[in-house]
UniProtKB/TrEMBL annotation:
Sorted UniProt keywords: Hydrolase
Signal peptide limits: none
Source organism per UniProt: Micromonospora zingiberis
Domain Metallo-beta-lactamase: 18-196
Entry's Gene Ontology molecular function annotations: 3'-tRNA processing endoribonuclease activity
Entries under Pfam families matching the protein: Lactamase_B_2
Presence of the UniProt keyword rRNA processing in the record: no
Name assigned to this protein: MBL fold metallo-hydrolase
SUPFAM superfamilies (alphabetical): Metallo-hydrolase/oxidoreductase (SSF56281)
């Protein structure tokens, strides 16, 4: 499978990147995981306006979903449309949240999206075997394990350290893991990971490589985050960038 990063800025768009959005592709099927602000732009640049065959939203914080509201226009009002409903796997409140974000009261986006409410478990999406589980974040949030052809990609979603994250990442070939916080400062609990915590999770889970994401450019230090993660995890690691692609 192939991972293409469309956006990786943590919490709000950065000067160099939209917010979280990752396109994962196998057998000509493209799953878009998270659809944060700005990533509809890079979707067109790196994949195509109609590239996604399905969408998975890990949680309903605005930095992970808002361009799914913008995308309603793309599907509903396309000159060659409207397009058929696109499958969206998301926490249960997603239909109402996206309708509200779209901005028309008492309107629905269910002509554009076919929603499936996430709950912990394993299920297929296209050619992928997908396992999701609740991770540690203030709202209902899922970490994701994607398997295809004997290869495994784990995506942390947004989370603080937790056992579910370690289970999802167990022996993954690639671990796309958030590292929002800087080590050594007084961070709020049960919200996000530091670079060191991302590295510790990668080491405990025995992953093949660590791809750090969701850094907050304005508040953080990439060099500091990388150094902290490297101190805890001896395998290959890097900070992802928009447009970067990885064969997994
Ligand atoms: Zn979040």
């Amino acid at each position: 499978m192939r991972l293409t990063v469309l956006g990786c800025a943590g919490s709000f768009p950065g000067p160099e990147s939209p917010c979280s959005a990752y396109l994962i592709e196998a057998e000509d099927f493209r799953l878009l995981v998270d659809f944060g602000p700005g990533s509809l732009s890079t979707l067109q640049r790196y994949a195509g306006l109609h590239a996604p065959d399905a969408i998975l939203l890990t949680h309903l914080h605005c930095d992970h979903i808002l361009d799914a509201a913008s995308y309603v226009v793309v599907r509903r009002y396309a000159p060659d449309g409207p397009y058929p409903p696109l499958p969206v796997y998301a926490p249960a409140g997603a239909p109402e949240r996206l309708a509200t974000a779209y901005g028309q009261e008492d309107s629905s986006v269910e002509d554009v999206y076919q929603f499936y409410a996430l709950q912990p478990g394993t299920f297929p999406i296209g050619p992928f075997t997908v396992t999701v589980d609740r991770v540690l974040h203030p709202v209902e949030t899922y970490g994701v394990r994607l398997e295809h052809g004997g290869r495994v990609l784990c995506y942390s979603g947004d989370t603080a350290p937790c056992e579910a994250l370690l289970r999802l990442a167990q022996n993954a070939d690639a671990f796309l893991c958030e590292a929002s916080y800087l080590d050594g400062v007084d961070n709020p609990p049960d919200l996000h990971l530091t670079g060191r915590e991302a590295g510790e999770a990668a080491a405990k889970a025995g992953v093949g490589r660590l791809l750090l994401t969701h850094l907050v450019a304005a508040w953080g230090s990439e060099a500091h985050t990388v150094a902290s993660a490297s101190a805890a995890y001896a395998g290959p690691l890097e900070v992802v960038r928009p447009g970067a692609s990885y064969d997994i």
